[in-house]
Amino acid sequence: xxxxxxxxxxxxxxxxxxxxxxxxxxxxxxxxxxxxxxxxxxxxxxxxxxxxxxxxxxxxxxxxxxxxxxxxxxxxxxxxxxxxxxxxxxxxxxxxxxxxxxxxxxxxxxxxxxxxxxxxxxxxxxxxxxxxxxxxxxxxxxxxxxxxxxxxxxxxxxxxxxxxxxxxxxxxxxxxxxxxxxxxxxxxxxxxxxxxxxxxxxxxxxxxxxxxxxxxxxxxxxxxxxxxxxxxxxxxxxxxxxxxxxxxxxxxxxxxxxxxxxxxxxxxxxxxxxxxxxxxxxxxxxxxxxxxxxxxxxxxxxxxxxxxxxxxxxxxxxxxxxxxxxxxxxxxxxxxxxxxxxxxxxxxxxxxxxxxxxxxxxxxxxxxxxxxxxxxxxx
Length: 379
Hints:
Blueprint: H1 4-15, H2 25-39, H3 44-69, E1 80-86, H4 92-100, H5 110-113, H6 129-136, E2 144-145, E3 148-149, H7 159-164, H8 176-183, H9 188-202, E4 209-213, H10 221-227, E5 232-237, H11 240-258, H12 266-291, E6 296-300, H13 301-306, H14 308-319, H15 325-337, H16 357-363, H17 365-371
Parallel strand pairs: 1-4, 1-5, 5-6
Antiparallel strand pairs: 2-3
Helix pairs in contact: 1-3, 2-8, 9-10, 11-12, 11-16, 14-15
């Protein structure tokens, strides 16, 4: 029901543009479409949703290249970048929000990265039509679900940028064929495109020191570090027996929302995610050793919950930055308002996904031993 040539031509027709920018994305698009054919029941509704997603990515690429073609000088470079990563549901989002509470870092907001070209006449966030439209439709103004933090001007992770290059892991859809291909593919050109988008975003909207986050960077830290040789890494940790079923629950919700007529089989989802995330954390440990331990700092969810500002101070010290009193105050207020359970309980069990806590801890045994991850008693 979908083919690459029609989708590409549709994007060109709707924008009047033809330049999609650096090559490499085509392979990912082809693998995504093949996986959709093999892994999904592509009825008309499902095909329509996937077509809309792909069309949006392709048109964004065309508009990004048009923007670059209009620049008289090169956009400012990325001066520094801090990468938050780790297994999913290990408080990576909370860390991202906490560190974004101060003025030191640039980060992506959903309303800007979903439509990355600044509207003509916009002088800042306050009069930006994209942000005003987000407020009007009430997008992101809630405090988030029990599963996830979401605020209008809060940071979002890198999935949209990686998706623009068709090299995102795509766990929001049940596409194991694609995800298995993705985790073994090269992301060198994708991280180059990642920097291309960051430079667009911070042109006229500083600072140029970025903080980005995505648990799935675990799979390709080597390619990320090659693109950003100045990058430092904040690795989040939590007992996998607690974080893994939470991740299963979150991903199951996303897949049900994306394809309400094709809800995921929880046992099949648990089996695939265990395979997938164990592979990812193994890659991360190997890449970390090659990149250099001096570029990494470790943070546990327990440390963040016990002393959020103290944890931020330790990260700032690692980065060689000063944590000002005003930033401490802002971070303290954010942490107090977003303590665990502030958005309601998130209930999940390992057994729902066909696993026991012992099986999960055994699967992640190398990781637990390497980082001395403590069991979570009241998960």
